[in-house]
Amino acid sequence: MTNSARSSDPGDHRAMTTYEWSPPYLTVVYVGAGVALLILLALARRFAKSQTARSWPLLLVRVAVLAVLVLLLLNPVRVREDRLPPRVPAVAYLVDCSRSMALDSPLSRIEQVKGALTQSKKLLPPTNQPRLGLYRFGQELLAVKDAHQLTPEDDATQLLDALERLPARFGDDVPNSVVVFSDGRAIETDGFDEIAAAYRRLNIPIHVFPVGDPTASRDVAVQDVIAPRDALAGARVPVRVVLRSHGYSNQRAEVRIRSLANPRARPLASLGVTLNEGVQQKELLIEHDPALGKLVVEMPPLAGEVTAENNAVPFQIGAARRKIRVIYMEGTVVPYDEYHWLRDALVEDPNIECLAIVVNNQYVESPTLHRVTDPNRGYPATREELFTYDVVICSDISRTSFTQQQLDWTVELVARRGGGFAMIGGNTSFGAGFWDQTAWNEMIPVDMSGARTGEGRGFANGQKFWVRVPPEAERHPIWRIIDDPLKNRRVLKQMPPFNGTNFVERLKPAATVLGYSDRPLSNSGLMPIFSCEPFGRGRSFAMSTDTTIDWGKWFESEWGEEGDNRYFRKFWRNVIYWLSENSAGLNRRLRVETDKVGYHPGQPIKVSAHAFDDRLEETTGYRLVARLRPAAANDRSGSRPQTLQEVALATKGSDSAYAGELSVPPLRSLPAPPADAGAPMRSAALEVTAYNGEQVVAQAMLDVQVLDDPVEFQDPRPDATRLEQLAQVSGGKVVHDAKELAQLLGSYQTVPGEAVVHRAPVWDNAALWVLLLTLLTIEWILRRSWGLA
Q: What are 571-627's pLDDT values in tens digits?
């Protein structure tokens, strides 16, 4: 059995062996026992019956046996002392490897740290080098072997989390101190004083090495791009750009949109901006060309920017999968082909398909509608057929031309399917046609009255007037005739006059007026001529005057340049695009929407969906599941992309809409094509499936664009104050350069090795027991040879 103990007494490093006694009893006990044994031996010899038993050889052997036993009882101990090697001081380096450490120029923050590590090592003599434990932190804490593994690639600085996890890595080798190398731009805000106090109790001060130039941290960034998910080829598409800037207030900059694949091509759009401190939004208009593929919003770097990495954000607008389908009904039949003005304006756009319908006689009790291309058919006679269209235009058509079902289906097309509806003026339109007494009344943006004495009944025939567009309405998409705002304003002022209009009472509360009459008409005051409003999931539009030969003959034929009607045609295409923006389209069984198209990692994706049964009636009886997968185009395995997240969509109360929420995964979860491995935009596929039991009844797929905008770049300014507070509370120091770091490391002295003492009882020695057995054997042989028992 061996016992060991450590002693911190200095001395040489040689092993020394000594012996000492460790009796379990008092000395007087052993003395008394020895005297008693001697007396017993003396008495045994004196009263022995034979001369042989009293012989001295036998007595000496027995005395030797008793002496060995007494020696064992005295518990002699062999003591050996070994000296351990000297203890070299240890220091833990904690290096920030978040993306903000790549900022600053010409030498980045991480390169400043690496330079300090190398230089401080050179300043220390080889005999005074402490043992260094190197750790990197950002989103997680990792031990690294050398400075080559210190790469600034983490999306966040979690300094507090790293300090909490670090002590578990020490084990028995507790360092003399910890040195934190960072710019202090941590995402945590609370808890630093508590963790610093805990290190102080452990007698481990935290020294800090702040990096980053606060005077050189100006930055401009494209924070977000908001664009439609898809658009028809050739459509004019607005793109909203969110800008963020620090340190460039009131300076001029340029925002532009160009093809990502062809940076030398002329920008699709550009806009000069005056920068404000913080966040601001701007809108650019582009003509959509799906062949261009990915686009990019960019701002050329400004002088003194800390980084240009966040000056560009790629995005993509998909190609719409089908044409916009429009039903256009025209009641003016003299001349017979009067409908062609509006129809031709629409079909001039390859993305619009128009079904023209005319009436045999709008003033009979039950007029008959018939299609220009198929006179035997009129307005869709089934709900299913009507729902294949996106927009319905009703121009001077009698309400008795429709069945009640057709009226109800049209309301459903707009309110529930996101379609569009437009009513154009005429003798049988609005209040003059008693449309306030039908289901379509709710859709129309203006209040009207069919009562003979009502202000909203009747019309002003032969009263010439012009339309005045309010300044606040000039930027509405319907009035965006040409791109240049100043020229567009002149175009609106050039709109020809009209020769009559229907009377309406007022705008509805949710409606937006797009144009008034320039003067009061028949003592009715200024009349709203153009107006629009959202209705349910769709949109509606009202033109209280006419677009044909009676009241709008100049409008349809002369609103243009050099005798053409180009502005008239563009106006009606704008109306159709605006009305159809929310249309359910071809997927008639499942309609899915997200709150945005582009997201940043960690943001929620709010998904809403509406399901329809085989009769195209909205239902909540299906089970809907939303799945987020990597975009199939980026997956090179050939198999179905894995599911990143899955959530069941549910309804609440009486609401028929399904809703749920997914979280945007980090960029590393979304593979990029080999050619775009470093691209800051990735794509994910949102797949929503409707189940009836276990049977799939419908499926919809949407693209989700994930944009890289790390929190590290949202405010790149270093925060040395936080680091200094950390050092103060923990009992550490603020180190500013390699020389001060070397002085700090050199202040730790090598501690002499501890003495380890090994204690081993001698009775555990085999030789001693062999001696005892030998003596007993000799005593036995002597007795037997002399004839003693």
A: 999 999 999 987 866 566 888 889 888 888 888 999 999 998 877 788 999 999 999
SS3 485: helix
Q: Which of 544, 579, 614 corresponds to the end of one domain?
A: 579
- Give the total number of structural domains in the chain: 5
Let me know whether 149 and 102 are in one domain: yes
**Domain assignment present for 726:** yes
Q: Assess if residue 492 is contained within a domain.
A: yes
From CA 184, how far away is CA 13, in angstroms rounded? 46
What pTM value is reported for the model? Answer: 0.57
Torsion angle, alpha carbons of 482, 483, 485, 487, to 10: -50
CATH code where residue 345 lies: 3.40.50.880
Q: What are the CA-CA distances from residue 222 to residues 101, 153, 272, 300, 655 (Å)? A: 20, 20, 14, 11, 38
Under 8 Å between Cβ of 324 and 348: no
Q: Are residues 745 and 120 in contact, defined by beta-carbon separation less than 8 angstroms?
A: yes
Question: Is residue 751 domain-resident?
Answer: no
Q: 109-148 burial string, b = 16+ CB within 10 Å, else e?
A: bbbbbbebbeebeeeeeeeeebeebbbbbbbebeebeebe
Cα dist. 243→43, 116, 251, 556 in Å?
115, 36, 13, 42
Q: Give Cβ neighbours of residue 85 (< 8 Å, ≥ 6 apart).
A: 13, 753
Q: What is the dihedral of CA 334, 340, 341, 343, to 10 degrees?
A: 140
**Residue 642: CATH number of its domain:** 2.60.40
Helix H or strand E encompassing 42? helix 27-46
Can you give the residue range of the structural domain that contains 376?
324-579
* Low-confidence stretches of the chain (pLDDT beneath 50): 6-11, 633-638
For 252, list phi and psi in degrees, rounded to 5: -90, 145
DSSP 261: S
Q: Which of 298, 228, 305 is nearest to 269 (CA)?
A: 298
Residue 219 to residue 715: CA distance in whole angstroms? 8
- pLDDT value of position 676: 58
Give the separation between CA 783 and CA 53, rounded to whole angstroms: 8
H/E run at residue 712: helix 711-714
